[in-house]
Specification:
heterodimer, A: alpha/beta, 8-stranded mixed sheet, 14 helices, 8 strands, B: about 120 residues, mainly alpha
């Protein structure tokens, strides 16, 4: 971990966009609105379900709603749920707007800063010919205008800067000053469960701006750290961010389904909230690629929010909100994945697959709702990890 | 000055419609944005007051450059929480009623009849 003085605000690395007082106040409002919705308004959905949607469903169908999709049907027209959903969707759109304003204002400066990043040992390799996968072209994931890959100008870093600031607001600061909780939590699980593991090379798939990546440099100082993403703007920004923080990472623009690394190049492959932004076919191709890239005994670990089967049906329904309301088309299906099944389908030994929960590495207990629900990212206080050892 | 680079404003993908009349979706979006701008103004006033209290002239440059420390940010968080309780009153009212059980609420006409008949 990089030393930070203040755990209640985003760490100011060398390329974080500046904000005027008003721009910062607007972002702080969005953060407060999101927290208010998650901690005070969202809970009313369960009251609405118990008080009216559940009895109405039972009356209409002759049976109480059992599954999360039953509950979705029961709640789909409930006025409280619809109004909360509308506010939640707006909070997401307001978040992007609040971070776009300062990024748009200072974009030439950000691009210049990224271009003149002090050369530490890290590298950046872009591939302008890379085909952006269709699951990133169809809709802009989690409503970020332009997604990870769109370039609004030459050498663009805009959506790297937008994403970096927005994630801090989205998680309401509960992933720490570096937005690194998912990576730090995954690292903690690896250290606890594989104490003697000494990976020589590590790959972070779908790294975006490197929030989760950089922790691996400190946790495994002997290892070379590589990170890939399909989006050039997030990679340029990730590289500049890592350089400004003195972390050595080799970033390259690649699709995790088919990379240009040699066979058995890595001992550890990780991803953090990557899987739910792919597709059923793509995530299987990614796992086959992991199999090709791993050395025997190597480990692949994916971090996500819990699968629906592990949650009460009502909670699964609330966690599933993003599938239809936040441009996360694979969110729902990805929450049905079973590690051993995927391992078996992709050439691994299913008996070496695992699913685990690890408590959040970042201490932010007072602002956590301890619930996994739409619009409350990072509030659950734990991450679900799954994967397999080769 | 270099030409302004414009970012994309809308996320690709069909936006869900939450209300029967799309004008209600738009009106809610505008209302929430306005609530945000009131909070921005309130923080600006708070900054002016704090600068004045510290003996600093609250010029536009001083206000724009002001960086609230952790204590001030916590106070503003608390203010916004109360502010949102006030702005979203109608939602919290509905939630309180749902919590108490919607079945307990009698039609208002029945209440009129009850007190009228209670001679």
């Amino acid at each position: 971990m990089t030393a930070t003085q203040d755990l209640t605000t985003q760490f100011r690395h060398g390329i974080l966009p500046e904000t005027t007082a008003d721009e910062f106040a607007r972002q702080e409002f969005v953060k407060s609105l999101k927290f208010h919705l998650a901690s005070k308004v969202s809970l009313g959905n369960q009251d609405a379900f118990e008080a009216r949607a559940k009895p109405a469903f039972a009356k209409a169908t002759g049976a109480e709603p059992q599954t999360y999709s039953d509950i979705r049907k029961a709640m789909s027209e409930d006025p409280y749920f619809r109004f909360w959903s509308a506010m939640q969707r707006n909070s997401q759109e307001m978040m992007w707007k609040s971070v776009q304003i300062p990024v748009e204002r200072q974009l030439p400066d950000l691009i210049a800063a990224a271009g003149s990043a002090v050369e530490a040992a890290g590298t950046l390799r872009l591939n302008p010919d890379l085909e952006i996968p269709k699951y990133h072209r169809g809709v802009d994931i989690h409503c970020m205008p332009g997604g990870y890959h769109t370039e609004f100008t030459a050498d663009d870093v805009a959506n790297g800067a937008v994403y970096d600031t927005a994630v801090y607001i989205y998680a309401m600061g509960r992933m720490g000053p570096l937005n690194s909780d998912i990576g730090d939590t995954t690292i903690a699980w690896i250290k606890e469960n594989h104490p003697d593991f000494k990976p020589r090379r590590i790959l972070d798939m779908g790294c975006t701006v490197g929030h989760s990546t950089l922790g691996y440099c400190d946790a495994f100082p002997e290892a070379e750290v590589y990170a890939i993403d399909v989006g050039a703007p997030v990679l340029r920004y990730a590289h500049a961010r890592a350089q400004s923080m003195g972390k050595t990472v080799h970033f390259s623009q690649q699709n995790a389904e088919a990379t240009d690394f040699e066979d058995s190049f890595f001992d550890l492959i990780v991803s953090h909230i990557l899987v739910h932004e792919t597709s059923n076919a793509a995530m299987r191709r990614i796992m086959k690629e992991c199999n090709r890239l791993l050395t025997p005994g190597g480990l692949v670990v994916h971090a996500e929010t819990p699968p629906y089967r592990d949650l009460p049906a009502y909670d699964a329904f609330m966690l599933d909100w993003d599938t239809r309301n936040n441009n996360e088309p694979y969110w729902g299906a990805s929450h049905e994945l079973v590690a051993s099944e995927i391992a078996g389908e992709t050439g691994f030994d299913p008996d070496k697959a695992f699913e685990a929960y690890q408590p959040s590495a970042f201490e932010a207990a007072e602002r956590r709702t301890k619930v996994f629900q739409g619009g409350d990212f990072g509030g659950g206080g734990a991450w679900w990890l799954w994967g397999v050892q080769k | 000055m270099a030409e302004q680079i414009r970012l994309q404003k809308k996320a690709r993908g069909e936006r869900p419609q939450y209300f029967a009349d799309p004008a209600i979706d738009k009106t809610l979006a505008i209302t929430l944005a306005l609530a945000g701008e009131v909070a921005v103004l309130r923080d600006r006033i708070d900054t002016i007051e704090r600068l004045a209290e510290a003996g600093v002239a609250p010029t536009r440059a001083a206000v724009d450059a002001y960086k609230p420390d952790a204590t001030v940010r916590a106070k503003r968080d608390a203010w916004r929480e109360t502010y949102l309780d006030t702005v979203l009153r109608i939602i919290h009212q509905e939630r309180e009623e749902l919590e108490q059980g919607a079945a307990d609420t009698k039609p208002y006409a029945a209440v009129i009849e009850e007190v009228t008949a209670d001679a």
